[in-house]
């Protein structure tokens, strides 16, 4: 989704902005631009397409400037083209603004400005904001005041950065609902919507909270709230190594992230297992264990892949903690007036920690007095900061739009939470010790699965031209079927559906013929025999069957077209293994179709608009 970068200091900002925008490419975007200011001139250069297209436009121009902002746009209002790209600017072309989020009342503001003689070039909501600020500048306010006055008229969400030729010593940034972070340097400062774009310059960062405005100079910054009251901001040290956000020799971030799973899974549980007691310890939940364990209900709110992790969490928690669990799409949860009581725990799962719907549902649950627990990957993200308590998954930066290693790490953390609160419930010491043993084996078992990469690639070869796919699983593997189908459709654009295997006969079975590939997740668990019957039903209708089965299962080879064998583990942990071949299958099909797997069309890594 849209990305923001900015620089103020003595260096030439052009390269810094371009480099920062490249680091944000993974979020998904359709146009890019920069606005720069120096003593003699100011200019905006923008284009539809990629940052590399923008770079080509800059070749040979030798722009130098110590002040600039940049943006990658993911279209909301108006198609992706040069005019709609950011930065937006006023008529005099000396005030530049980049914006993430949506100005909801833009149409009424626009009408008012048009009456005053303002003309609009783009179809965006953002252009309203730049003209609104311009209007206050023309009333002789300084830039900081003009921005504040303008924002007071705005309804909606924003992360903005503004620069002005007549006040070239500062960048003004403000946040409401869209993340922004300041990177503090020595006699230079950086801004970005995502720390990944900053860490090659500095590890000292300041996270903006909603309704905060920062005036950033090269050697200091002043933080205020929207009512102009000065506030003190804490400087945090971020701990991300630069090689964590490079491809490390892999063709794509997605492949690198799939391959990193032995390590990321290990990192998610490192130091958190208590083998003797057969349970876990989670520093972030300290002091909240009893309240969670004695909740009347646990609600889980999330989107996309994180929602699938939530479904697995529901099975885990109900099986071992015996607490009723409901899993909701955050987008539904926030608007349907859910019944939430103060004795409920609501778990928010979000890789980025910034997904607008998940964040809004967190705020809703907080208002109603529930205990809010965040499971996030990005340290310092909004959901992590606003939750009452939480657990980081420690999967490391995930750049590929299609989530892979974050999913398996979310499952590890859900398993740890389940063990933590189930000891006094349905989880005996011996059961807990068994689970811990199986968890410890996960990294090795994942390594084994990853060694089948070539075999999976050969299977992918046969299905590159398929138009549809069906994914079926039961019990713990039902959410895996949903996740396998999501991975395929996200990056290969093949229509794919995930279903509980038994539900197939209530509809999807009508689709099955010799052209329909059906992926079964058929591991040896409590519902294995039932899944085998479902496989027979598909076979009888000549569907092509790819099965994810256990190593010791010799029978399945006789009835399926392809069997991918994975090690057996505890039922609860099976999804952590069974999803991996599905990630690889989706990846190889998409690559063979010649598609951009890291930045699939229309998708964004972090969806910060509704
Ligand atoms: C987007 C991404 C998905 C992700 C979902 C939720 O749709 O493309 O990969 O699962 O957002 O993101 P979150 O950061 O909240 O887990």
Strand order of the largest sheet: 3-2-4-1-10-9-11-14
> What does the overall shape look like?
globular
**Rg, alpha carbons:** 25 Å
Integer tally of domains:
3
Amino- and carboxy-terminal Cα gap: 12 Å
CATH topology of the largest domain: Glutamine Phosphoribosylpyrophosphate, subunit 1, domain 1
The major β-sheet equals:
8 strands, antiparallel
Query: Which band does the percent of strand residues land in?
Result: 15-25%
Q: Give the names of the bound compounds.
A: 6-O-phosphono-alpha-D-glucopyranose
CATH class placement of the largest domain: Alpha Beta
Q: Identify low-pLDDT runs.
A: none
Figure out the total of helices.
Answer: 18
By helix and strand content, what is the structural category? alpha/beta
What's the total count of β strands? 26
CATH superfamily of the largest domain: Aminohydrolase, N-terminal nucleophile (Ntn) domain
The helix content is 25-40%
Mean pLDDT comes to 94
Assigned CATH architecture of the largest domain: 4-Layer Sandwich
Summarize this entry quickly.
The protein is 34% helix and 22% strand. Helix 9 (304-320) runs antiparallel to helix 16 (478-492) and helix 13 (405-422) runs antiparallel to helix 18 (574-592). The protein is built from 18 helices and 26 strands.
